[in-house]
Design a protein that fits this description.
Length: 571
């Protein structure tokens, strides 16, 4: 097969650029640590080495961007100069390179034992300019109407340096907030604009003379999808996003530096391809998420997991499950063995299944859902007679014939049908009670979701999917904040805890006032709300926060969702 070479890339040429041979680029740390080095011969003109001078702005917040950058380490610069020396014939240039190589060798020796985050390895700074809440609308209108060149750095009211975003043409006395984090040697940045074609999210300014590699998306895809480098890049980004984004969220803004330091190491960065399921309705609320890049689509009535509302007879279901313990080689025995040990012990020791506590019933449902979430459940030999039955296959006729192309929701559809075939008593069939599939909202970068289930200790109330551009390119990345970390935050800061309670209580009152004007209240009481709680309280329902829905910023959507639920009540 002929070697495929892609069209030449169109990177802007600048004075002082350094172009190495493709095989020489692979000796730099950006590519040397990859599990599989890319074939750079196939991508001519897609990367170049540039020199940054001290105080030079690489790009400004709000500018269009389609490239990513990597800061060369001191060892990389030494390697680059040695490679240039090998291919230079001019005597004066060779002496110049030899002198620089001698200086670099001394520098590399001195920095050999320095950690990656040592101040001597700092090369640039990321500056993020944000407007205080009262000035956002005014400034946004100005930025939409006027396209201007970036102004010189200014000082805000706290005497912090601000690099005003591109497009802003309003008064310089406006109340800006500043955020900044350092960029060290060996860090990759600018990848969000490169992947998503979004404007630059911050300003980058060189702290000293340094060298960077600028490259196009075809190179970034090769680097960023390598598992070795992806882990390193995620760790670096996580530190950056904690300082610039999470720290600015209202829920974290009032924390002291010491309080914030206690929770920052517990958050995780996760990536999803477009269409991937992030969290599912009726699943356990064990974390909340902050969207880093891409979109997250929130939907109702698309889950195939079991809810407590689906169980019509706890005694019948519990006894059917327990019978699996006496026949371990049967399909029922196989399903029983997949349940969590804690739940199996609970069922075997229960004297009266009808008197299971609400928490025990919830744990039973969660344990069943953990089994239903297993994409390989139906491959067990014990289930083969059921799965290969023609009548059973007919129920899956709407799914692609090749299971390798199935997503998580489609596997859960199969597993739910298998579960209903095994346990026909005590549960409702999914197809007989599933509501209308409804898109509740789209969450964009800096939005967060999943916090209400944590605060109310209730299951997820909607399914969330990774959603990208219409061409379905690019990954969706979210920052995951575990439940343990979230509750430690509530305990650390009285101010944060009180703010959350006030917002929750205010939203609850607003929703009850809006829905209380309806005429189908009996139907509304039986339908879980889109934010993880009944739209109107049921008699005897425990409410740990004396309130409990998302912050007031999503009230219009809640009113719309309430109307949808009322219409379902009519049906």
């Amino acid at each position: 097969m002929a070697n495929i070479v892609h069209p030449r890339g169109r990177l802007e040429q600048r004075e002082g650029d350094i172009n190495l041979l493709p095989k020489h680029y692979l000796q730099l740390s950006l590519f040397a640590g990859l599990r599989k080095a890319p074939d750079l011969d196939k991508f001519p003109g897609s990367l170049v080495i540039r020199r940054l001078r001290r105080k030079e702005e690489l790009f400004r917040q709000g500018e269009p961007g389609w490239t990513a950058f990597y800061i060369l380490t001191l060892e990389d610069v030494l390697t680059m100069r040695q490679l240039q020396l090998e291919h230079t014939r001019d005597a004066d240039r060779r002496r110049e390179l030899q002198n620089e190589i001698a200086r670099l060798e001394v520098g590399v020796a001195n920095c050999a034992n320095l950690p990656e985050d040592h101040p001597d390895r700092r090369a640039a700074t990321v500056y993020l300019a944000t407007l205080k809440k009262r000035d956002v609308r005014q400034a946004t209108l100005m930025m939409e109407r006027v396209k201007s060149r970036p102004s010189a750095p200014i000082k805000n009211r706290q005497n912090q340096t601000i690099y005003v975003p591109v497009g802003y043409a309003g008064p310089q006395t406006i109340s800006w907030e500043a955020g900044k984090v350092p960029l060290m040697e060996g860090e990759l940045f600018g990848e969000m604009s490169c992947l998503m074609r979004t404007p630059r999210s911050a300003t980058v300014v060189a702290d000293r003379d340094c060298y960077i590699i600028e490259f196009l998306r075809n190179i970034l895809d090769k680097v960023y999808r390598d598992p070795v480098y992806k882990k390193k890049a995620d760790d670096i980004y996580l530190k950056r996003v904690l300082e610039l984004q999470i720290r600015k969220m209202p829920i974290f803004r009032d924390l002291t530096p010491k309080e914030f330091e206690e929770i920052r190491h517990d958050v995780q960065l996760e990536s999803f391809e477009p269409g991937d399921l992030i969290c599912d309705e009726y699943d356990r609320s064990d974390c909340m998420y902050l969207v880093r890049q891409g979109l997250v689509k929130v939907m109702k009535n698309v889950s195939y997991l079991l809810s407590t509302f689906d169980v019509t007879d706890w005694v019948a279901l519990g006894e059917s499950l327990r019978r699996g313990a006496t026949a371990p080689t049967s399909p029922h025995g196989k399903f029983w063995s997949r349940l969590a040990e804690k739940v199996r012990t609970l069922l075997q020791n229960a004297a009266n299944l009808a008197q299971l506590s609400p928490s025990d019933r919830a744990e039973l449902v969660f344990a069943i859902n953990e089994v239903l979430k297993d994409n390989k459940l139906a491959e067990a030999a014990e289930f083969k007679p059921i799965v290969e039955n023609e009548a059973f296959k007919a129920q899956l006729a709407h799914l692609p014939p090749d299971r390798k192309k199935w997503n998580d929701s489609q596997f859960r559809n199969l597993n739910r049908l298998l579960f209903e075939r095994l346990y026909q008593k005590g549960i409702r069939e999914h197809k007989k009670h599933a509501g209308i599939e409804t898109i509740l909202s789209y969450n964009s970068p800096d939005d967060y979701f999943g916090e209400t289930g944590l605060m109310l200790n209730q299951p997820r109330s909607a399914s969330c999917f990774a959603f990208s551009h219409p061409n379905r390119e690019g990954v969706v990345e979210v920052v995951k904040i575990p439940a343990k970390t979230f509750w430690r935050l509530m305990k650390l800061s009285t101010g944060v805890r009180e703010k959350v309670k006030q917002e929750v209580s205010a939203k609850r009152k607003s929703m009850i006032a809006t829905l209380g004007r309806g005429i189908w209240e009996d139907s509304i009481r039986q339908v879980p709300g889109a934010d993880g709680m009944p739209l109107l309280p049921r008699p005897g329902m425990h409410d740990p926060l004396s309130g409990g829905v998302d912050p007031p910023r999503r009230q219009p959507r809640d009113r719309h969702r309430g109307l949808v639920h009322r219409l379902r009540g009519v049906r």
